[in-house]
């Protein structure tokens, strides 16, 4: 069996950067511009990548290119490996956000993007205009092997969970929130107050729930169990942001983070009601791997996120 280290030594690791930009842009000319090479050089890199993977990666479709199934599978891996390499070779160097072209990757829920994203986006544009920020949305596949995932990203924003109780994990508190109930304002339940019996009889919209029961990886599952409810789930969705839209204009109910409910309730015609029982608080934290403690770029990003969260 070939030694993996020898195999790695025989690879042109510049192809990693080419692969990342080709998968991002889905266009050879734009990828070449992003990398700073000629279009023929980018085409040559694509040809080498196609031979290596024995796959077209980019296939022509309706006047443009689309990713092949293998390329789709490679996209997240490529982003993670490139981000890890940037962190590795950036460690120990002085970091100047004003001139850096460093890429940062955060794993978070779409709800957190709605709450913290605008301030983070504006701060990055002002303070680190050349840096790239990649926000990866939480999915079950990410949280299943979080110990491996967190090594390949700059951080994760999530409430505490048993699977994060690992000696190499570090974390710092960011902001708090609480669960509220939302219903359409035309729903008789909108006049409140809600009771647990009434909630149990209503149809629900539930984020991140599999076909059988609540998902153990979803913070919402613990809240529903805490209230002693077995909701009649009518709609399951892999998103927190989508939930209020799927309640609006229906007889459904959902538990929603209050900060999110406040953003959309008036626009969607929703009533925001106190949840009966004692749903636990939401305490969002920034998590990272201990290997990043010595990385000045990561410390800068961490301090920025913490400062922005404090302003909430």
From TrEMBL:
InterPro entries attached to this UniProt entry: LysR-type_TF, LysR_HTH_N, LysR_subst-bd, WH-like_DNA-bd_sf, WH_DNA-bd_sf, YidZ_PBP2
UniProt keyword DNA damage, yes or no: no
SUPFAM superfamilies the UniProt entry points to: Periplasmic binding protein-like II, Winged helix' DNA-binding domain
Pfam families according to UniProt: HTH_1 (PF00126), LysR_substrate (PF03466)
PANTHER family noted in UniProt: HTH-TYPE TRANSCRIPTIONAL REGULATOR LEUO-RELATED, TRANSCRIPTIONAL REGULATORY PROTEIN
Protein family membership: Belongs to the LysR transcriptional regulatory family.
Protein name: LysR substrate-binding domain-containing protein
